[in-house]
Design goal:
The protein has helices at residues 4-17, 53-58, 62-77, 80-90, 102-105, 110-119, 132-149, 155-174, 190-201, 210-217, 280-292, 356-361, 367-371, 389-393, 402-409, and strands at 30-34, 41-44, 48-52, 221-222, 230-232, 235-238, 243-246, 252-255, 260-264, 267-273, 301-307, 310-321, 324-336, 339-348, 363-364, 376-382, 423-429. Residues 84-128 and 178-186 have low confidence and may be disordered. The chain has three domains: 4-91 and 128-222, no CATH class; 228-371, Protein Transport Mog1p, Chain A (3-Layer(aba) Sandwich); 376-429, Membrane-bound Lytic Murein Transglycosylase D, Chain A. The chain has 15 helices and 17 strands. It is α+β, with helices and mostly antiparallel strands and 431 residues long. A seven-stranded antiparallel sheet has the order 8-9-10-14-13-12-11. Residues 379-426 form the LysM domain. Belongs to the peptidase M48 family.
Length: 431
């Protein structure tokens, strides 16, 4: 992303990165604000630091922003990235069928995670993340950088608390368990780490620059960017691509910039696209090859049909593994002579039909429907006399859990009240 918000993030990130001693020049660090609705941040050797706008929107002051960016730089300073790469190399033994989903495994997406759970003899391969020891060390360095820069070192703990609260809320709203195995999370167990970060900060204090931070992030997109498609409950709608579909009850979606992952207990799927030469059969066969990688997976059955006016080709294949048979399905839709989209799914043998309602819901949308998709944005407001958590939460652009969303967004505990004259974030609709 570019613009004033990105410039502000860059400035804060460069200033805190200098505290690492990796370079004495702030300009040596390339800090980027990513247009993503996922709460994430990371850094790689060479001075590259990244944070998503969604994670920035969850923060409540500049010290929290500096703490997160400092934590990521701390991973680089401690050479954790190199250690993690070496560990992944040591564990890179897959069975023959383990590479059936190699194409999606390399993308580290939902299908890949399921593929590892079903096939892999090394479950942590490619989803191997920083260990608890490495996270603790990066937290320690982040707190140290905050202290050296004059920020309140307790900010590391407060942002971890907000992240834990957001993860728990997201899980509850999606109807899934909030507890994930550590290797499935890029930053494991923020709730327990928050206590450790608070202890590291001790009795020290410093600046937070809360008002400056909130003023600078006012208006940032929150949640999905319509240009990348929008998840609303069980429905995905993409106004630019002019398509929509609905997932079954009990499943939740994770929207990426180039794909949508669909996750549930009885299988996982992904919507994406690929090069299309006008021949749907070629397209489906190529999708199977991409999924299969070196194993040259091919459809065992092909079925032509039309779904909501779209020419559709369905390919299926059953694959045996030591842990049981699974069904791999590719459903491709032709939207134009040079454009097609497809679902790729995997489910235990005999349960592939769980996704049939989703396949049958795919349809084109009209220009009028597309125009009605308006992004959500952060709106920073100042509480007035008489305002309450309830009154401000009622202004949130959601039909459910307004108070819970407001409290998590603003780092408020269950009993905390708004203070007149203080700034708070709400989420509104705005172009």
């Amino acid at each position: 992303m570019t613009g004033p918000q990105a410039d502000y993030i860059k400035q804060v990130g460069q200033n805190i990165a200098v505290q690492s001693g990796l370079s004495n020049s702030a300009s040596a660090f390339n800090v980027t604000l990513l247009n993503s609705s996922v709460n994430n941040a990371f850094a790689i050797p060479g001075g590259y630091v990244y944070v998503t706008r969604q994670l920035v929107a969850l923060m409540n002051n500049e010290a929290e922003l500096a703490g997160v960016l400092g934590h990521e730089v701390g991973h680089v300073a401690a050479r954790h990235s190199k250690q993690r790469q070496n560990a992944a190399t040591r564990n890179s033994v897959l069975g023959a069928l383990g590479s059936i989903l190699s194409g999606v495994l390399l993308g580290n997406n939902a299908l890949g995670q399921l593929g590892q759970q079903v096939f892999s003899t090394a479950p942590q391969l490619l989803t191997l993340k920083y260990s608890r020891k490495q996270e603790t060390e990066a937290d320690r360095l982040g707190v140290q950088y905050l202290r050296n820069a004059g920020y309140d070192p307790h900010a590391m703990a407060t942002v971890l608390q907000s992240l834990a609260a957001q993860e728990a809320l997201d899980a509850r709203l999606a109807g899934r368990d909030a507890t994930l195995p550590e290797w499935a999370s890029s930053h494991p167990d923020p709730a327990s780490r928050a206590q450790g970060a608070n202890s590291l900060a001790g009795n020290l204090t410093g600046v937070t620059n809360r008002d400056t931070f909130l003023t600078r992030i006012d208006g940032v997109i929150y949640g999905d960017d319509p240009h990348q498609g929008v998840v609303e409950g069980n429905t995905f709608i993409h106004p630019d691509l002019r398509l929509t579909f609905t997932v079954p009850q009990g499943y939740y979606m994770v929207n990426g910039s180039t794909e949508v992952s669909v996750n549930g207990q009885s299988g996982q799927a992904q919507l994406t696209t690929a090069a299309f030469d006008g021949n749907l059969e070629n397209y489906v066969r190529q999708a199977f090859q991409t999924i299969g990688g070196r194993n040259q997976l091919a459809p065992q059955n092909l079925q032509r049909t039309r779904i909501n006016g779209l020419e559709t080709l369905i390919g299926t294949s059953r694959v045996n593994s030591s842990q049981g048979a699974v069904d791999v399905t590719v459903v491709a839709y032709q939207f134009a002579n040079n454009q097609a989209y497809h679902f790729a799914s995997i489910a235990p043998a005999g349960q592939a039909a769980v996704f049939n309602p989703m396949y049958n819901s795919m349809r084109r949308i009209s220009a009028q429907e597309a125009a009605q998709v308006i992004p959500r944005r952060i709106d920073v407001v100042t509480a007035r006399s008489g305002d309450t958590v309830q009154s401000l939460a009622n202004r949130m652009a959601y039909s459910d859990a307004q108070m819970d969303r407001f409290r998590v967004l603003n780092g408020l505990s269950a009993n905390a009240q708004v203070v007149p004259g203080e700034k708070y974030k709400i989420v509104v609709r705005g172009s």
